[in-house]
Amino acid sequence: MVYLLVETSGQQQLAKLRAGFLEALVENLNGLVSYFGGTRLSMERGTMLFGLAASRAEGEPLSELLYRVYDLLNRNRSELSGFTAIGEEFAEEPEGAVLRHLSAEIWRSAQSDGLWIGPRVRERMESALALRGEGQFQEVIGRSAEGDFAARWKGDFLARPAVVDSLVSAISPFLQSPSGPCWIRVWGPPLVGKGHNLDLALQQACGGTTEWLRLSVPGPGLPFEQPFLSGLRADLLEQVPEYLSRAELAVWEEKRGIFSFVCPDHAFEDLHTAYAHYLLAYRRLMERRLLPPVVIFEGLHDYQPAAHELIARLIRTLAGPAPLVAIGILDCEAMPPPLAEIPIVDAPVGAVGPEELRALLRGNPRAGGRPDEDTEEILARTEGRTLFVHHLLSLGDWQAVRGEEISFALANELDSASRLILFLLYRVAGILGQAEIIRFLSSEEIVQEVVKSSLARLRDLGFIAEHSLAVRTPEAAERIAAEFAPRGFEARFADWCYRLWRKGELRAGLPLVAFLGRFGRFDQTVELFFHVATRLLDRGEVDEVLSWIEQAELFPRPLSPEEARTRDLQFALIALRASVLLQEREQAELHITRIKELTSDSVWEGGLLELAASQHHFAAGETRAALDSAKRALIASQRIEAPFLEYRANIEVGLAMLATARFKEAQDYFAIARGGPATDAGTYDLLRCQGLEGVAHFLDGNLSKAIRMAEEAKGGAVAACRREWQRFLILLRGRCYFAVGSYEKAGELFHAGSAFCRIYPDVSAAKVFAAWAGRAALYAGARTTLRTFESLEPNPEVLFFMGEACLEAGDWERAAILFDRALELLSDLPFRYQPSEVLSWIDAFASIEDLAFRSPNGTGVLYQLVRAARAYARSRLGHAEESAAELMRIVREEKLSDLDPNLPYYHFLHSLVLPEGQGEEAVIRLTALSKALKHVQEQSTRIDEVKKRQSFLQNNRWNARVLADAHRFKLL
Hints:
The protein has 48 helices and 12 strands. By secondary structure, the chain is α/β, with parallel strands linked by helices. Helix 31 (623-640) runs antiparallel to helix 32 (643-659).
């Protein structure tokens, strides 16, 4: 039996100060010994005795166990205040006798901190450990370079001991005691073994563990989120909640939905927050295991700029007492700008030189006994690229090949299954994972064991990376695809991917579109492109979609005239919606003209044109045309049973109804669309339906129903990571509570909206929330509100609220000046081309009241409110007749809808500017007041919750004043 005794010096003090650390240490020691087949025999007062059966302790396992124990204790030397461990083999003896004997040896031979081993254990080591000392018991100071390499990397030609040593020297200081945010740059030419040798160096420096995180992309051009999503570890995701505080867990539960990437619109911010918590949990997990937290970013030169920025933020975010050890692997020395600002430690890896190659040839059986004189020839053919050297020596005959030809020649010698897998891995980079590949090959009657064996062979030869399915030699794989794929294999594979997507079992993205396009699947490519581009536009990824439209490689083969027409039509339809979203009215009109030229007699194509035209007409304020186009799109969808077209057409009809103040009908159409089949209606459409239905109830006066709809929609917005809609729903709820007179609750929501704008930056929205928070405080009775408004940018909405504050203070003259300035700014605003999908933050009325009550010339509700308030202020300055005329124009000549929620306000102000005299003047005044009263009462009847209805009548400031005057003049 081999015994190991471990004593820690400051056990009692450590238990008091850092009980968690001590528990973690014991847990790690137990785990290590158990992993190598041993067990803990006793533990008492800082002394632990472990035993390992002699039959399980031969050579490498025992040396590895001892080294890992040494490394674990050595890395935590300062926290332990010293430690001593001693290992030796004894015949069968009682545990007490062994314990006494080893304790005596500690006092006699091992008088300094460290791990010591006796002579019988040394015999089993085969020179695997580096030792120090002259007596019977010698101190372990590390691994033996020669023995370690021979034992651990036997047969691994990609391993380069000199490179491993240099990497260990570069990274060890940061693994042992990281002092702040730092970036370790491992760079050098492609295919020289940077990633593989970094793995070996980390194993050596971290005591054999492979617990680090690895992020990578299979090639350039993939979305910025690709490395973060593909690098998620399922086991770690399950453990995250265990390592977060209650507050952190609440954030994590809200943000982790971003990893599904259903429909995010602020993906960068959400991914940063969610991934930061993921890495925080990882860091704490590693701290518990007494290991450094290491994150490797492989192929960093192929990441998108947004990914570089996100990585830089993550490193800074987690730069606390135990910062991440961030390692980037690049094919070039130049660092991406955001990461170049972080302190960098260089770890260059060059090509193999003559002396190193000779050592590798001598020390590795795969070299086949190559003589030293072959070295120059091998270097000339491989340019010192480790992988090419490895492939060259693996070839049966290598006299006629060099560079990429080497890898192709070796691939040609592979069995058919391995060639097929290599071809697939090249074709599906970033699209399919290993599970999907195995699933497809099973459908080709290639059994899973053969697939797994082939993958292992490809990894062994270095064709694919150890920790991912990235192909290291894409040029060779491309030639394999061209020359060795069986007839019909590519077509079957393309059909399989398409069927998988149609069944909802394969996530669709633009790489999949390009993939099908390369196979010449025109109809499938067009269908998939329209679907993917539509979803990307739903997320607001307009620039990405437009850039793909400009890429001809989506359809690389020559197209027939009909195919070219279909492609151009699909592109134009997507470009039209993109132009509407970008608020480019003239460009949208050009696209409509082009689409009309391209549209055939197809009902589907005609329906898509009408749907897009409806969206354009609505943005342009052409309500009648928008409704007609939406109805034609709806009819077309019903003729051909096209659910996608039907539910989107229902939304557009609902919007047209909203624009004509037909709120009940609008609610019906939104409800129909919202109740569509879940498999057809996308997350974005369901969310829009809920939000717009809430707006329809707000405008219809059912404020309590609007609040419930907004709260219900909030859950969908959070789950889909649609932060723009989440922000808008905060505003809508705040406006509802403001309307019912719950000013404190409204203020809380507006302040929440301001905080939201700090997390997801939006300057325009932040201004709206700040202004309304001030207005809510004013209406709630605050006295310092004017000073709050003065700190804000004086836009029309802020000027209006400032004028209200002046009215409250009786400063009529200043109020009139502020209203004049607001009207001047509003008059200078150009006509607003306002898409229904773009939530406008010009003011809080733009995406609510202005949807229904915008005037034909484009002026919104705020313009009318300022006019009315200005007239009232002017009446107080002696211009009563002029003010009465202005208010008369607003309530009579402007032809305002009887459903306008501000109508009572206008009529009441009209009554206030009229004299209280006798005769006809009194009748006109009472008529205006009675109209205000009538509208207040009618609006209150639409509120379906009693408490909110009462609050609307009693707590809403203007409604309360209307009722008070109505009592005074005996109208109630």
